[in-house]
Amino acid sequence: MKHTLIGRNISIMLFFSYNAAPHSVTGLSLYVVMMGRQPCWNIGLLLGNKTEEAKSVPEYTANMLDRLHKVHNLVREHLGAAAQYMSTWYNNTTKPATFCNGDRVRIYNAAHRSGRCPKWQFWYGDVGTIKKKLNDATYLVSCPNWREDRLIHADK
Asked: Is residue 110 within 8 Å of 125, Cβ to Cβ?
């Protein structure tokens, strides 16, 4: 019985610590985003940190909603900036592959064979022919081993 309670307390402390740690993108913890305030730690309770003055329920609710709106807007701004940065980085490092009708291409097959080391597997098993370019990244490909033509992304 004691062992179960100790394990449960440790997991609760771990979850609390994770939720109270600031996120790398937003700079805010999940606790702040969800609750609109900083968490109360044991040391803060022991030192007797200054608590907020008593407010009426409508005042507290209005104040909390205002804080949550500000926090959520800040999180949206930070996530948007991070997404823009990642998109720019990806677009700068990616080299698009372009193919023409009639080009012969090898098709990537991500299926793993059990019992065989992935290092020694041949990942490009089928050789197909480009029949039609549908857009910048999608092609209609035919292969003698297939019954029907398939839509294949340029990454594959």
From this structure: no
Nearest CA among 109, 101, 106, 108 for reference residue 134: 101
Name the strands in the sheet holding 126-133, side by side, starting at the edge strand that comes first in the sequence.
104-107, 126-133, 138-142, 150-153
Whole-number Cα distances in Å, 25 to 13, 19, 22, 29, 85: 23, 14, 9, 10, 11
Q: Are 26 and 77 in contact (CB under 8 A)?
A: no
The whole-angstrom separation of Cα 86 and Cα 88 is 5
- Give the model's pLDDT for residue 91: 84
Structure pTM?
0.57
Listed by start position, the domains of the chain span 2-93, 104-153
Task: Tell me which amino acid residue 120 is.
Answer: W
How do residues 57-88 score in pLDDT, each as one tens digit? 999 899 999 999 999 999 999 999 999 999 99
Mean pLDDT of the chain: 84
